[in-house]
Amino acid sequence: MLAFYLGQWQWGRYEERRERADRITAHYDAAAVPLAGQVGPQPLPLAREWTKVTATGTYAAQAPLLVRNRPLDGTYGYEVLHPLTLADGTVLVVDRGWVRNAESAEALPDVPPPPQGLVQVTGWLRVSEPSLGRDLPKGQLASINLGEAAAQLDSDVLGGYLVLDAEKTPEGATPDRPARLERPDTGIGPHQAYALQWWASMPVGFVLVFIGVRREYRESVGEPGSSPGQPRQKKVRIWDEEDA
């Protein structure tokens, strides 16, 4: 039974990875669509994650939120979040990219500021990440949890955030920005193979159980040679006329 449930668990992980890969493949390289109608105040539906959208707004004139311990090319740093106020007054959290840790653990890194005035952003929608429940200094987050981001920004935010692909000002300028995030991995991992291995091992378990039960039975009825290494009982010679 253990092998069966472990196989089920690995198969569930395989299906999650496959569905994620399918979403990325379907959306990542598609043409961008307007943000309106894709996300609202409610959490972004998982089926719309990685939808490529475009929106126009103004970045708030405030310090960014820095998300700690985020890897890029094998190095850890911060992802940089800025709130973008749209024409209807709603706020979209934009992940503008990644910056390396400062040389001193007590210092924060230098971050390229966002452009002033109107800016058009293009990028991919992501769902809110789970909270890690950590108490960090103001301006820092342990994960891209939109509830915690909204609390620090003191503003309601849309139910999905945007990973920046490109941004452009009305004059056509391309502002400086943090390093682009890596293209998401679409590998499904070894979980399918692990599931099949666990299920394939189930008959072996039944065979071992059968052998063990059979051995116990043979020992219980006193069958000669039932226990390995146990000497066979000597045959008792019955008296006959030759002993007379």
Which secondary structure elements does this structure contain, and how are they paired or packed?
Blueprint: H1 2-27, E1 33-34, E2 52-59, E3 65-72, E4 75-86, E5 91-100, E6 118-127, E7 140-141, H2 146-153, E8 160-168, H3 191-200, H4 202-220
Parallel strand pairs: 1-2, 3-7, 5-8
Antiparallel strand pairs: 2-4, 2-6, 3-4, 4-5, 6-8
CATH architecture of the largest domain: Beta Barrel
Give the CATH topology of the largest domain. OB fold (Dihydrolipoamide Acetyltransferase, E2P)
- Stretches with pLDDT under 50, minimum 5 residues: none
Label the overall shape.
Answer: elongated
The Cα radius of gyration reads 32 Å
The termini sit apart by 65 Å
The figure for the number of domains is 2
Assembly context of the chains: single chain
Q: Tell me how many strands there are.
A: 8
Instruction: Please tell me the overall pLDDT.
Output: 82
- Tell me about the biggest sheet? 5 strands, mixed, barrel
Helix content: 25-40%
Element-by-element helix/strand order: HEEEEEEEHEHH
Structural class: alpha/beta
Q: Going across the major beta sheet, what is the strand order?
A: 2-4-5-8-6
Q: How many helix segments?
A: 4
What does this structure look like?
The protein is of the alpha/beta class. The termini are far apart. The chain contains four helices and eight strands. The protein is elongated. It has two domains: 1-22 and 183-226; 29-168, Beta Barrel (OB fold (Dihydrolipoamide Acetyltransferase, E2P)). The mean pLDDT is 82. Helix 1 (2-27) runs antiparallel to helix 3 (191-200). Strands 2-4-5-8-6 form a five-stranded mixed beta barrel.
